[in-house]
Amino acid sequence: MDAEAIKRSLEGSGLRCTPQRYAVMAFLMEHSRHATAAEIFEGVNRLDPRSSRATTYNNLRDLVQAGLVREVAVEGRAARFDAKGTPHHHFICDRCGNVEDLEWYDVPKPRSRSLGKRIVRECELIFRGLCAKCAPRRAAG
After folding, report:
1. What is the spatial distance between Cα 10 and Cα 20, in angstroms, rounded to a whole number?
2. Edge-first strand listing for the sheet containing 80-82
3. Mean pLDDT of each 10-residue bin along the chain, 141 residues long
4. Please, what sign has the CA dihedral across residues 58, 40, 66, 127?
């Protein structure tokens, strides 16, 4: 995604394109790994040390709320952030904490009467287990 596309996506989501917000979004678009907020802060500040930790975290919150970034909760570890625009699921390794993208397939929504007065916005699957690097170590150990 080029600079203009990032600006359009921010403005299209009702967010101002501040230099700090742009830097966070650009970092996420450039890096396919699922970075933590601390890693994003460090990466952004390597290029331009004007952004505070609080500003970075607030921008991440705003980007998640606007639907431009997804927060992936990893039990017992720092949350990770993902700006991949296409729908996908995640696999989280129990041992190393690595988060991997998995191909999307539709998840059937539950029948509305089973939800009571709840309204479902989206359904996403998170698979947990041992990644390809950690699984052989378990078999050997």
Report:
1. 12
2. 35-36, 80-82, 70-72
3. 86 92 93 90 89 93 92 85 84 90 82 79 85 81 56
4. negative
